[in-house]
Design brief:
280 residues; four-stranded antiparallel beta sheet; Immunoglobulin-like; 2 domains; mainly beta; 1 helix
């Protein structure tokens, strides 16, 4: 097989190669032609759980986004992304505050400059930019968009990258993967750090130090990677490790073979705090 090369004139070949070689069991949900200066400018959004690795093709890499701006005063927490310029008429992605399983293939050898338009406060609009560094071929990542805590400009975007390579795996029978994002800045006090407990608030913490075996709480603006749990109906507790009376809980039917993102978001002081579970 000849090595596939990304070119502007080979859009149909690019799409065909992605569909046939990378996502044989997947359904392409949309194709966007993005006008930017570098020659690799084809963005295809896929909704899939399976990535097939073909060494004859140098890439692409895969990214997806999640917006956790803690901005409930606006009608939507959506962040609108565009490549190269905020005036680019073609959208790159619309980022929702819920975790979805749609990945965007991007060239692995090119850093991307992305402009974001979003709202904050009581409806003020802001434009910011972020750079996606060069990614390894076939790598997978979630980019969580937080807002900064910088007193000088507290409303800039603060992207956190999470390795999603676990999604290339198939969970063992009767198991599923879960992970936790801490987007709650003021709980518990004085340190906003929590851990995850399954079925019993006093059960062993899910996230442990691999060397010491001690609980490792998830700090504010941190995303902890996937861990396996048995499938089935579970009650999850997200709580302070120092005070079990400070907790959130939710009940979920966890399906075998699936992936889930648990989000602790909002503001305790504002009364917008909540625990949500996204079935990806």
């Amino acid at each position: 097989m000849k090595k596939f090369v990304y070119r502007k004139y080979s859009l149909s070949a690019f799409i065909l190669a992605l569909e046939v070689l990378l996502f044989a069991p997947a359904i392409v949900s949309s194709v966007l032609l993005v006008g930017c200066s570098h020659p690799t400018d084809y963005i295809t959004v896929h909704d899939t759980d399976t990535i097939y690795h073909h060494d004859t093709i140098p890439g692409p890499a895969f990214i997806r986004f999640l917006a956790l701006l803690n901005n409930p005063s606006t009608a939507s927490g959506t962040v609108h992304l565009k490549l190269g310029s905020p005036q680019n008429p073609d959208p790159f992605a619309d980022v929702a505050p819920e975790m979805r399983k749609q990945f965007i293939p991007i060239p692995p050898d090119t850093a991307l400059l992305i402009y974001a338009t979003y709202f904050y406060g009581t409806g003020s609009q802001k434009v910011d930019s972020l750079t996606i560094p060069k990614r390894k071929p076939f790598s997978m990542a979630t980019i969580v968009l937080f807002r900064t805590n910088d007193a000088g400009d507290p409303n800039r975007l603060f992207p956190i990258f999470a390795d999603d390579s676990t999604r290339k795996l198939t969970p063992p029978k009767d198991s599923c993967y879960i992970r936790l994002i801490n987007g709650l800045p003021d709980f518990p006090q004085p340190t906003p750090a929590v851990n995850l407990h399954i079925d019993d608030i006093n059960a062993p913490a899910i996230f442990l130090d691999p060397i010491t075996g001690l609980p490792t709480p998830v700090n504010f603006q941190e995303i902890r990677n996937y861990v396996l749990i048995p499938a089935g109906l579970h009650k999850v507790f997200v709580r302070s490790e120092s005070d079990a009376s400070q907790y959130y809980s939710a009940t979920q039917q966890f399906t075998s073979g699936q992936f889930y993102t648990i989000r602790l978001i909002g503001s305790k002081i504002d009364g917008t705090d909540q625990l949500s579970i996204d079935a990806e």
